[in-house]
Write a structure and sequence with these properties.
With 411 residues, the protein is mainly α. The chain is built from 19 helices and no strands. It has one domain: MFS general substrate transporter like domains (Growth Hormone, Chain: A), CATH 1.20.1250. The protein is globular.
Length: 411
């Protein structure tokens, strides 16, 4: 089984099935079953700030106690339990403010535990690979899981209601836990620092703090990592605005059913898999920074397409090029960002660096995107014009990371 690297592939497949079982359809579910309007959901996502700190905590604990598998299994279980509690609808008949509070507690709690899932699995997989450059070929199985569960849940929700996605969440989580209990996890003993990490250590060493958080503090305040994180935040902002509000946009403005939207999203699958598979070759002819910039620019273009296209039904075909761009965006940033974070990390802080990357790209960016989206939709009203303005402004703001890329290349 090790010869075929089946464990990494199955782990990414099952983890994506678990994480994305509810991810796409949550805004629509909360509006229909909890009566929470779209702009309020935008504000609720601000609770993701807890996920940022959660990812750093889980990452550092996994390194400190060499407990990647235990923390990964425990956090994934807690994530599924807290997110699944939304299905029981306890408090769904209360006033809006209480409904929002209850959802924030469950959604925020799930986010804290869910923040461990991707960075810890990335580190486990990188340690188990004979050739780290083949990381993308393992990661692409997560894309297959995403495509499968979104399509399956779109069909299931149309036929059986939203309870179907919570059943999918439970089944996929159980599968992931079973796989991780069998995964031959390797310890990161005697890490070999790269040239970049040696330079980083020299530039930020200020007194030899040997506490649990001392190395993390030095990593997070170093110039190379700060520049990387700023670019990551801006790229994540574009991704999170579109990713959060496009499902609602498709349903409310373009009147698409959940199944049809799920099928439209599969346009991303082929370019995403191809980019993951051939990413090693692309990086060999450019660099990880260039690949990450390419991914970000495709996200900006995707936002511009949704912001500029007329909202008439005759333009529903824009979902295809929009989701093709999404595939390139996700694969390139995930692959390149993971490698950059792992390279910049000082020895012993690799998992924390990956957690910071995913925490900024997913959690902190979600906060900014949720608040920005909530303000725009609240001001303009929950209509087609509001969504267009939101996507247009996002595309314009998304051009700023290009400047940070140029600055970073100069340094």
């Amino acid at each position: 089984m090790d010869d075929l690297l089946l464990y990494p592939k199955l782990a990414y497949l099952s983890l994506s099935l678990s994480f994305y079982a509810t991810y796409v359809y949550t805004p629509n579910y909360l509006e229909e079953h909890w009566g929470i309007p779209t702009h309020s959901y935008g504000y609720i996502t601000a609770i993701c700030v807890l996920s940022l700190f959660g990812s750093l905590l889980w990452g550092r604990m996994a390194e400190r106690f060499d407990a990647h598998r235990a923390i990964l299994v425990g956090c994934t279980t807690a994530y599924a339990v807290l997110f699944g509690a939304l299905w029981f609808g306890i408090g769904a008949k209360e006033s809006l403010i209480w409904r929002v509070i209850i959802v924030c507690v469950l959604y925020g709690g799930a986010g804290v535990f869910g923040s461990a899932m991707t960075p810890l699995l990335d580190r486990v997989v990188l340690l188990s690979l004979p050739d780290p450059d083949t990381f993308g070929r393992q990661r692409l199985w997560g894309s297959l899981g995403h495509a499968l569960v979104v399509t399956l849940n779109g069909w299931g929700i149309e036929r059986f209601g939203y309870g179907f996605m919570f059943i999918a969440l439970a089944a996929s989580t159980a599968s992931f836990i079973a796989i991780m209990l069998c995964y031959p996890v390797k310890s990161a003993e005697q890490p070999r620092p790269s040239v970049e990490s040696i330079q980083l250590e020299k530039s930020v060493a200020v007194g030899g703090n040997s506490s649990m958080w001392g190395p993390v503090s030095r990593l997070l305040t170093s110039s190379p990592f700060v520049m990387f994180i700023i670019g990551t935040l801006m790229a994540g902002y574009v991704r999170c605005v579109v990713g959060t509000f496009v499902p609602v946009y498709f349903k409310k403005v373009r009147m698409m059913k959940d199944l049809h939207y799920g099928l439209a999203m599969q346009a991303r699958l082929i370019p995403e898999i191809l980019f993951f598979f051939y990413g090693k070759t692309v990086v060999a002819h450019t660099s990880n920074e260039t690949v990450m910039l390419i991914g970000h620019l495709t996200g900006v273009l995707r936002s511009a397409i949704y912001g500029l296209a007329p909202t008439t039904s005759s333009y529903s075909w824009i979902t295809v090029p929009g989701e093709v761009l999404k595939g390139i965006n996700h694969a390139s940033i995930t692959m390149a960002g993971t490698k950059i974070a792992n390279t910049l990390a000082t020895p012993g802080c690799e998992t924390t660096a990956l957690a910071a990357f995913h925490g900024i790209y997913g959690s902190l960016a979600m906060i900014v995107a949720g608040i920005a989206g909530g303000v725009v939709l609240d001001y303009f009203g929950d209509n087609s014009r509001a969504f267009q303005v939101l996507f247009q402004w996002t595309a314009i703001a998304g051009l700023l990371p290009v400047l940070f890329f140029i600055i970073r290349r100069h340094h």
